[in-house]
Amino acid sequence: MAGFVRHRRSKRVIANFSGFEADLLRSLAAQLIELLHNESAVAKTAVDPFEALLDFSGPTTEPDDPVLARLFPNAYREDADASGEFRRFTEGTLRDGKARAAGTVIDVLEEAGLPPEPTDEEIVIDVELDQETAEIWMRALNDLRLALGTRLEVDEGDEDRWDALSEDDPRAQAHHIYEWLGYLQETLVHAVAG
User: Fold this and answer.
1) CA-CA distance, 129 to 112, in Å (whole number)?
2) What pLDDT score does 41 carry?
3) What's the pLDDT score for residue 6?
4) Cβ proximity of 191 and 4 under 8 Å
5) Residue 87: what pLDDT?
6) What's the CA gap between 23 and 42, in Å, rounded?
7) Residue 170: helix, strand or coil by DSSP?
8) Positive or negative, the Cα torsion across 12, 15, 20, 21?
9) I need a labelling partner for 24 at 20 to 30 A (CA). Which of 12, 48, 174, 177 fits?
10) DSSP single-letter state for residue 141
């Protein structure tokens, strides 16, 4: 895969994914959505939209899951009460936004022709994103990369640790996916800015 590039005649950005790559992205996005909706912080769906706007019953403590703690860090590191209040008013909405962004990745891939189930056929999924959708993808790729990096315990400057792993080591394979997500994110940012 060559990453994202700006289309010569339009302001859209495009990328071509193999069926395997597209399915991998869909799987990662689906796993993130599941994680985001698997705790009590998910915003409640109320019948009355006005009531939903006034529902500030979100969580007040940092999530136990390290990925969620990384995606939703404390707003005030030195003030637990202020962090709790900030979290109560914002985390449910932030979770919903991150889940919608990951859902957009899935929708775009499927609209571009990714079959519902993985296939042995050699297919190419051509993705074309307008400015707004590209920005949503940037946020989703960032969240996916943060989630995977947290699970792998990636640290700045630890390239030697990853290079020393055997190619058969599942951690090495997961780290390759982490690097690939970074590559996609970087090429998308350059294509949108270009």
Assistant:
1) 11
2) 45
3) 93
4) yes
5) 86
6) 26
7) helix
8) negative
9) 12
10) H
Q: What ranges do the domains of the chain cover?
A: 5-43+100-193
Between the CA of residue 138 and those of 41, 170, 190, 194, what are the distances in Å? 24, 26, 11, 15
- Chunked into runs of 10 residues, the chain (194 residues) has average pLDDT values of 85 93 96 85 50 60 89 89 86 92 97 87 92 97 97 91 90 94 97 90
Rounded-to-5 percentages of helix, strand, coil across the chain: 60, 5, 35
Amino acid present at 172: A
Tally Cβ neighbours within 10 Å of residue 61.
12
The DSSP string of 26-88 is HHHHHHHHHHHTSSTTSPP--SSHHHHHT------S--SSHHHHHHS--S-TT-HHHHHHHHH
pLDDT at position 44 is 46
What is the pLDDT, as a whole number, of residue 54? 54
